[in-house]
């Protein structure tokens, strides 16, 4: 099977359940949703959790998208990167900043706050935890809820990247 062929393809529209129809009405027929809904019980649980992180979280959109895009880069997840590139722009990131998320953090003039989010994503990716120094710096800027959410957010998008990459979910333009 060629590397660009989905291992599990999107669910045909005539097989969409009410939950998927509702999601698609708000987002369009994104392949992540039409593929993952092949496991409807899991999809129903996941979509609520993911929506909370994406739309109802305590972190600013900028912090959220820095963390997600850096995670997409770290996990080499083209689908996640493509979709969150647009969302990142909507959250106030610039094209230059988004491109810089593919570089070493020292290769761009990030603010201390932005660099800290990137380092947090990198440490979680590389170590599965953050150093005490990183945690202390985070705790100076974020309350307990935000600290929990940031770690969960990065972990969630690692999981999503694993699924997207392993299932070979294609960006919508790839069909």
UniProtKB/TrEMBL annotation:
Gene3D superfamilies: AhpD-like (1.20.1290.10). GO terms for molecular function: peroxiredoxin activity. Residues 40-102 form the Carboxymuconolactone decarboxylase-like domain. Signal peptide: none annotated. PANTHER family: 4-CARBOXYMUCONOLACTONE DECARBOXYLASE FAMILY PROTEIN (AFU_ORTHOLOGUE AFUA_6G11590) (PTHR34846), CARBOXYMUCONOLACTONE DECARBOXYLASE-LIKE DOMAIN-CONTAINING PROTEIN (PTHR34846:SF5). This is Carboxymuconolactone decarboxylase family protein. It comes from Actinomadura barringtoniae. The lineage of its organism: Bacteria, Bacillati, Actinomycetota, Actinomycetes, Streptosporangiales.
């Amino acid at each position: 099977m060629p590397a660009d062929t989905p291992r599990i393809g999107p669910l045909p529209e005539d097989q969409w359940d009410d939950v998927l129809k509702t999601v698609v009405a708000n987002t369009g027929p994104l392949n992540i949703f039409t593929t993952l809904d092949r496991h409807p019980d899991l999809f129903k649980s996941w979509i609520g959790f993911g929506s909370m992180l994406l739309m109802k979280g305590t972190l600013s959109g900028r912090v959220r998208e820095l963390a997600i895009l850096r995670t997409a880069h770290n996990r080499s997840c083209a689908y996640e990167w493509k979709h969150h590139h647009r969302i990142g722009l909507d959250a106030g990131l610039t094209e230059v900043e988004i491109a810089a998320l593919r570089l070493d953090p020292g290769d761009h003039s990030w603010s201390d706050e932005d660099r800290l989010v990137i380092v947090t994503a990198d440490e979680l990716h590389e170590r599965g935890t953050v150093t005490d120094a990183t945690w202390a710096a985070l705790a100076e800027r974020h309350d307990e809820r935000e600290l929990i959410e940031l770690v969960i957010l990065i972990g969630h998008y690692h999981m999503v990247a694993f699924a997207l990459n392993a299932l070979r979910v294609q960006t919508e333009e790839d069909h």
